[in-house]
Amino acid sequence: MRIYETGKDYLLDELAVLEKGMRLLLADFESKEIDGQTPMSMRGLIVSAADIERSLQENEYREDEDVLAEYRQARLEEERQFALIIQGSISEGRRLPFAYLSWRLGLSAWERRCVLLCLAAELDSRYESWFGYLNDDVTLRMPTAELALRLLGDSEEEISFARPMLAGYSTLGRFVLRSDKAAAASERSSLKQPLRLDSRIISYLLETESLDSRIAAICKLYDTDEPARHLEFDLELQESLRHAVRLERARDVKGILPFIQLRGASGSGKKLHARHLAAAHEQPLLLVKLDRLTRDGDAAEEQLKHIVREALLLGAMLCFDEGDSEAVTAEGWPPQQERIRAAMNSYAELSRLPAVLWLTRMERRPSQLPLPQAAALINQDIRIPPAEVRLLLWQRCSDERADQELLKRVADKYAFTAGQIAGMSKQAERLARRNNRVAPTLEDYASASRSQVQHRLSELAEKQKLIRQWEDLVLPDEPLELLKDACSRHKYSETVFNRWGFGQKLPYGRGLSMLFAGPPGTGKTMAAEVVAGELGLELYRIDLSRVVSKYIGETEKNLRELFAEAENSGAILFFDEGDSLFGKRTEVKDSNDRFANMEAAYLLQRIETFDGVSILATNLLQNMDEAFLRRMQVIVKFPFPDAAQREQIFRSLLPKEAPLDPDLDLPFLASRVDASGGHIKNIVLSAAFMAASEQAPISMRHMVKATRQELHKMGKIVVKEAFEPYN
Fold it and tell me: Could you tell me the domains of the chain?
């Protein structure tokens, strides 16, 4: 059987049938020419008496019936043959846009012929002259409603039903024909109104653009070229979504619309799940970026009409993405909600395989969504995938030369989303190439992880530089061992909670919360930096002045945002002077006490449900609320250093590059200076500046002078003989 190789082959066959009808009309028109009638070149400009006489004598529809009766029968037979060829061509994988247009928009035979009539001049310029001649108007060189009604109907009854199809509320009028406001406002009768195809219908039929250029900045098209298996990564969730859509479509109710709300953090894989769902049903996905939709009412309505038409033409699933813009994600964001709802109603009514996905960072209530009347709402949260799924994503994103054991460690260590993993993998490979390495190292992945975290923590906290290491931390064995155990707890949390099943027994409290308690300057902040460096995570020191507010509810709001951003980024929260926020709750004597206790109660609840790493530091352990202490997984006490530890601190603070005098007696200084590491740091730094000003090595004279100054600053009395013989 013959098949059409291209869409143009099919159009040319249809055009040949149309041309036969046109030639019959032209011949009939010419046979009725009257002497004195206005020449063709002047028609539309002059009306003669002969023109009027001819119009009075004509009975168009009866005469046309005689002229076109045989043609109409032949046309029906030709169209039946076309249908068989179309079926065979599509089964052979040929793309026939005109057939798809008719099928996807549910066009009748008359509407399909009308589209071809309007397209004719785009395929053959001769039709412009023919239209002007048949319209009896040289200025009207395009098809009119009158010509379409005369030529395209199969019977008078069909012609009477065809006229409403040209109205703006029909499928043909809304999505196929161009609404020309200037022409509509002209003085021509409705029968003489020109019929024009919308520019997107022309480009679709002639295959000159893959997406309507008017919505290219708002939409992104994901075609069906990529198989669904290439997008698989959370099989249980993806199968659940497929099953939900299949179930709703199996009901076979006209206008029913599966409406899936996917909620998850930025980069969590919402788009990947949407693409997989569409690919699994062998449909394209048309992604609409809501934050780019215009706020102007009429313009937005026009954009939405183009979007719906594009989804219908392509047989696509519609996907609306709220994005990350504050204008979109704020409460009550949709200024165009009713217009979006109307557009979805049109889509649900006309699409043969309708489905809508709504991508959002925060879950929307039904009242916040533009749900059509027949929408079947399906809510689905997308969380950070487990380690096994993350490993699959790492393997998919990484070069084949990557160390598989290292990828497993990275997947366990970084609880990242699908988007973050893709970006981190590319960045790690760039770092490896920059350093002439075949594959990324753990340090490359750690550095790349910091570039992938997008958050607003810097507005509420201060990022700490991570330059300290374990050897810089001078502590007794017990607290040092506790810190290392805490790091191991975080590293192996994936194994314990997910692989060993403890996560099913513990629905919350899976984060790591640590309390560092000790006198000022004993190394609590340094220990927080060392832990963050060991875990490869960013450390943010909470600025209490930006968090605590005198206004009721503001502190809780700031804390909620703080913890949410930390969960999104995976950063460590470091509450220095934590007793100011986590102090003991007091007896309620007035409203201030009640609201202060509410803040403490909220913190108590939020610390327990926080899945990340939080560190609290306090100088006054006795001031901490007992409920907070119970919720701390690790409590590390930082003791005041003894003489041996003070000597070690002195040595650790002196760089290798610094010039040292041979007389420098660090054991002597450590035995005489009863101070913590913070004060020792001040002494060493002051002595270095004294030596630099004299252009001399750092000596005991500089150290003793700096020590006296620091002890005076601490309020301690220093006797003259205390540092003999180095006075």
Answer: 7-206 (no CATH), 213-381 (3.40.50.300), 387-452 (1.10.8.60), 470-637 (3.40.50.300), 643-723 (1.10.8.60)
